[in-house]
Amino acid sequence: MIIPVDALEPDTLYSLAEAFVLREGTDYGEQEVELDVKVQQVLEKLKSGDAVLVYSELHESVDIKRKEDIQPSDVESEGNEGY
């Protein structure tokens, strides 16, 4: 199920983005990028719609995925198809 970013409190959204960045261990090349900058980049992707929050009922967890990586099973939910 896709969770609209505006359905979450800003602190919760920030915490999810921060956990995603820490978990992913994203490589930014030769120049190190501060954690807050990485988190802000993820938040910008979420707010622009390039990335989405996906809740897994099976795993009872929330993940962040690129919009183009979304599977039909990510969208299906009770009464929230497409969002």
Brief sketch in words of this structure:
The termini are close together. The chain is an alpha+beta fold and 83 residues long.
What's the CATH class, please? Answer: Mainly Alpha
Looking at the overall shape, the CATH architecture is: Orthogonal Bundle
Which topology does CATH recognise? Arc Repressor Mutant, subunit A
- Multimeric organization: single chain
Low-confidence stretches: 78-83
Total beta strands? 3
Helix content: 25-40%
How much of the sequence is in beta strands? 15-25%
Sheet of most strands: 3 strands, antiparallel
Radius of gyration: 13 Å
H/E element sequence: EHHEEH
* Terminal Cα span: 7 Å
Number of structural units classed as domains: 1
Helix/strand class = alpha+beta
CATH superfamily: YehU-like
Number of helices: 3
Shape: globular
Mean pLDDT: 84
* Largest sheet, spatial ordering of strands: 1-2-3
